[in-house]
Write a structure and sequence with these properties.
Blueprint: E1 2-7, H1 12-15, H2 18-27, E2 30-35, H3 43-52, E3 56-60, H4 74-80, E4 86-95, H5 104-120, E5 124-129, H6 132-142, E6 153-155, H7 162-170, E7 173-177, H8 187-195, E8 201-203, H9 225-236, H10 240-255
Parallel strand pairs: 1-2, 2-3, 3-4, 4-5, 5-6, 6-7, 7-8
Helix pairs in contact: 4-5, 5-6, 9-10
């Protein structure tokens, strides 16, 4: 089976098509998916999906792009994560691409998530865009690394350099590739994927965004994570079955899931 390690099935454009989306997952042997929270007001929708469907999981967190939203506390994140279907903290991190000015609030929010992860022992889902140096620095300083007593996690929808990827791997993190990997323009990301050991890689859709080739330009969905796996297998010149087995094992190891 394949596992989509990052999707947003609670978003209206996907939730209104849920029966078809779940059918496509089944047809493509995508047996599990992690529905990732982006703010606290909508967390109940994410959790409801995980409670309703045995093959869906949830995370809890507040995305760094969300400005006008309730700020999470460590205590809130710890309490909300105290549910067997909540397997991760996030998505969290830093994003300097869309926002400008004094972004210390964003860095503080990131630190809050890291502390909640350390307390709960649930891994982090990290988003970073145009902020990789600060992201890695805060991960180190706040103790996100496995050898620092943190729970580790995943750098989701990875678009950074091999140097950044290796710094994250050194901290015990996994690197997750989305449909971007299949884009002709994504040469740097493809080189990173080739260089990393398969044992540190996850696959995802980040749906409804970033549909992989051959569906590029359409609304993405978890069933299409198989195309990311297929491209990764071709890139590494290894059997698709090997990618399928190892990325599934990686997901289960990171998020403490038993299939």
């Amino acid at each position: 089976m394949f596992i989509d390690s990052h999707c947003h099935l609670d978003f209206p454009e996907l939730s209104e098509r849920l029966p078809d989306i779940l059918a496509t997952m089944e047809a493509n042997r995508v047996g599990r998916a992690l529905c990732v929270a982006v703010d606290l007001p909508d967390f109940a929708r994410v959790l409801k999906l995980a409670e309703t469907y045995p093959h869906l999981y949830a995370s809890v967190g507040v995305h760094p792009d969300y400005v006008e939203t309730p700020e999470p506390t460590v205590e809130q994140l710890v309490e909300l994560s105290n549910h067997p279907k909540v397997i991760a903290i996030g998505e969290t991190g830093l994003d300097y691409f869309r926002l400008t000015g004094d972004l210390e609030w964003q860095r503080n929010r990131f630190r809050t998530h890291i502390e909640a992860s350390r307390i709960t022992r649930k891994p982090l889902i990290i988003h970073t865009r145009a902020a990789s140096a600060d992201t890695i620095d805060i991960m180190r300083a706040a103790g996100a690394g496995v050898e620092q007593g943190g729970a580790g996690g995943v750098m989701h929808c990875f678009t950074e350099t091999l140097e950044v990827a290796l710094a994250a791997v050194e901290l015990g993190f996994y690197i997750s590739f989305s449909g971007i990997l299949t884009f002709k323009s994504a040469k740097q990301i493809q080189e990173v994927a080739k260089a990393l050991p398969l044992e540190r890689i996850l696959i995802e859709t980040d749906s409804p965004y970033l549909a992989p080739v051959p569906h590029r330009g359409k609304m993405n969905e978890p069933g299409w994570v198989k195309h990311v796996a297929e491209y990764l297998a071709d890139l590494k010149q290894i059997p698709l079955a090997q990618v399928e087995q190892q990325t599934t094992e990686n997901f289960c190891t990171l998020f403490n899931v038993t299939l």
